[in-house]
Specification:
mainly beta
């Protein structure tokens, strides 16, 4: 199943930092993919996150969603922020819908919202062998490694051109 996981917002109700704002860095994850959400002036109230993941979940597998972070301190050690981990499978429809997850520790109390929905378009995978080189003549290489590039098309007019993968070494698979 091709899914979109959209981290919508964070509603903060308590911050332990003086001045009621915080410099935060959250790591958001969906099935091994990660993105950062950084806010150097997070305050009590609602703040948009707007981070989206596009993931493929085989029917017998699970969708794993997680969030956690730190409050950055200039004058002392960084403080851990509350986070969460959620796992969804076929039995609970891979978590389709909106979820509001409460989290709290001594540094912050918040409610983070995310939505799981069907991906807006089909996922296309290109699988082949890539030769990786560097621009530094002193570096070792080139290296050959198998790769998979996954693309989501959400507009029928979308075009993609990949000229560096020879067709004879590439397998194209489209999910519908």
């Amino acid at each position: 199943m091709d899914l979109e996981v959209h981290f919508r917002r964070i509603a903060v109700s308590k911050i332990s930092d003086p001045g009621s704002n915080a410099e935060v860095e959250f790591t958001l994850a969906a099935n091994g993919q990660t993105q950062k959400f950084v806010d150097n002036d997070l305050r009590i109230g609602i703040t948009p996150i707007n981070r989206t993941f596009l993931v493929r979940v085989p029917p017998t597998s699970t969708l794993n969603i997680a969030a956690g972070g730190v409050e950055k301190d200039v004058s002392s050690a960084d403080d851990p922020l509350p986070g969460f981990v959620r796992r969804f499978g076929a039995a609970n429809n891979f978590g389709l819908g909106v979820h509001s997850i409460p989290a709290s520790n001594t540094h912050m109390t918040n409610l983070m919202d995310f939505e799981v929905r069907p991906a807006p378009g089909p996922l296309t995978s290109l699988t082949g062998t890539a030769t990786l080189t560097t621009t530094d003549d002193r570096a070792r290489g080139p290296f050959t490694t198998p790769i998979t590039v996954e693309l989501f098309f959400n507009d029928p007019r979308t075009e993609v051109s990949i000229s560096s993968i020879p067709p004879s070494r590439c397998k194209l698979a489209t999910a519908r």
